[in-house]
Design goal:
This protein has a six-stranded antiparallel beta sheet. A three-stranded mixed beta sheet has the order 1-2-17, with no helix packed on it. Strands 6-7-8 form a three-stranded antiparallel beta sheet. Helix content is about 25%, strand content about 20%. Helix 1 packs antiparallel against helix 4, helix 2 packs across helix 10 and helix 3 packs across helix 8. It is built from ten helices and 18 strands. By secondary structure, it is of the alpha+beta class.
Length: about 450
């Protein structure tokens, strides 16, 4: 996404949502048994993520990972990512950040200002200014870019920029449709979108490194193994150990003291419940709302019966929850090539109780109304913005699809270097862990040349 493309998105001239014949930035994966949100643009998930950049807690690696792969092993690669991404916490205190810290004190949880991959404004006071209400698309574009006064750094400004400088060719609007073993490596079939039309193409390479995200990579590999049968030796573990990272969303309506909109980043801080409940509650910004027109980003009064909002009411405060929900699901393809997701929802009940108890405590401390998805829907149709696994790494093909360096069992030279290989929840935004694993895989490949 270029600045011009974001301007077009803000004006409603650029498609926001990805479709089969209309490429867009945000892709909704509406699978049977799952709803997931991912990015579809150069820079991948970094275009859509909240810029929170931090390593997974060491306890995450206690089980489920290949031998020798833990927080200590990844420390060097976490450091490399930090040097590239340069995350820094919010230094200028915003009212919602201070309010969250006060709420944490009330309920006995520590508040952490999170490291963000962000370009901050030259004048910190710009973060305080209430932005004008410019409509749905303008607010959406601002949220995605990092706020009205700050700009997050995407992979297009870091890793991909360096890759281009080293001679890499980046081809937007290209989609791989098949990977086929060849005598000297692999042939990759793809289709490209131009002038409203799709056309097909073919390239060859001695090695292939997939990084299409947990859902995109898993879907492609399942298609190649089961539908067109070009990769028959892929492990039977393909599609397994898929995790939602404990993702959940909640709204606090009319929190006290009253908060006003600001121009800061979507996320500034979270409440740390890791020591006792193995989860985190992250504020994701204040939601502007309208009074009946289409000028607001979200008005729950339109879809939640009984709630009435007027300009005299307070803001709605949104939160994202993540944690160690150790309840893996499985992805499979139907005969029509559609992804389906299955998991035993009963195994998530303990995590759900911990999460709902925490949110109720937070709402009581804020003297706010708590709004969450209905329990039945949340159980049967989990929603995730951090899909993980599907092609998990392991010590053998009995338990995973790739080894600890991302190379596929049964298909030498075929690598995966994205969230699909993460075998457990990370319990935090996974971008830094995924990048650290990719750094480790790149290091391995470089040493083998």
């Amino acid at each position: 996404m270029t600045p011009a493309a974001f301007d077009a998105l803000s004006a409603g001239e650029q498609p926001a949502f990805h479709g089969q014949d209309q490429p867009g930035l945000i892709e909704f994966h509406r699978c049977s048994g799952l709803v997931a949100v991912s990015a579809s643009a150069v820079g991948g998930g970094s275009v859509l993520y909240t810029a929170v950049t931090l390593p997974a807690p060491p306890e995450v690696f206690a089980s489920g990972w290949p031998r020798g792969l833990d927080a200590d092993t990844l420390a060097t690669y976490y450091d490399r990512v930090a040097r590239m991404i340069s995350p820094t916490p919010l230094l200028h205190s915003l009212p919602r950040t201070t309010a969250l810290e006060e709420l944490g004190t009330r309920i006995g949880a520590s508040a952490t200002r999170l490291p963000l991959s962000m370009n901050w404004p030259d004048e910190p006071s710009k973060l305080d200014r209430r932005p004008p209400a410019n409509g749905v698309f303008s607010e959406l574009a601002a949220w995605i870019r990092g706020g009205h006064a700050a700009r997050k750094r995407t992979l297009a400004e870091t890793y991909l920029l360096q890759a281009e400088a080293a001679g890499a060719a980046i081809r937007p609007l290209h989609e791989v449709t098949a990977i086929i073993p060849a005598a000297d490596g692999y042939e990759i079939r793809y289709r490209s979108f131009r002038d409203g039309q799709w056309s097909e193409g073919l390239v060859a390479a001695p090695r292939v490194i997939l990084a299409a995200g947990a859902l995109g990579t898993t879907r492609l590999l399942l298609h190649c193994r089961d539908a067109i049968k070009t990769l028959p030796n892929l492990s039977h573990a393909l599609g397994t150990r898929f995790h939602t990272n404990g993702d959940f969303g909640a709204l606090l309506v009319e929190p006290q003291p009253a908060l006003t909109l600001d121009a800061g980043p979507p996320v500034t801080a979270w409440l740390d419940f890791w020591p006792t409940r193995r989860l985190f509650v992250m504020e994701t910004g204040l939601i502007p709302y309208d009074t009946g027109s289409l000028t607001g980003l979200l008005n729950p009064a339109k879809w939640l019966r009984g709630l009435r909002l007027t300009p005299a009411k307070h803001c709605i405060w949104s939160f994202g929850i993540m944690g160690l929900e150790a309840n893996p699901g499985e992805l499979r393809l139907t005969r029509r090539g559609k992804l389906i997701h299955r998991r035993d929802s009963r195994r998530s009940e303990d995590y759900r109780r911990r999460m709902m108890t925490t949110l109720a405590e937070l709402a009581a401390a804020a003297n706010a109304k708590l709004l969450t998805p209905p329990a039945l829907i949340a159980r049967l149709l989990p929603v995730t913005v951090h899909p993980l696994g599907g092609a998990p790494m392991a010590d053998s093909p009995d338990h995973g699809v790739v080894n600890s360096y991302g190379e596929a069992f049964g298909h030498p030279g075929l690598y995966v270097a994205d969230a699909a290989i993460v075998p457990t929840p990370t319990a935090v935004p996974p971008s830094m862990t995924v990048a650290a694993l990719a750094e480790r895989i790149a290091d391995h490949l470089f040493r083998g040349l």
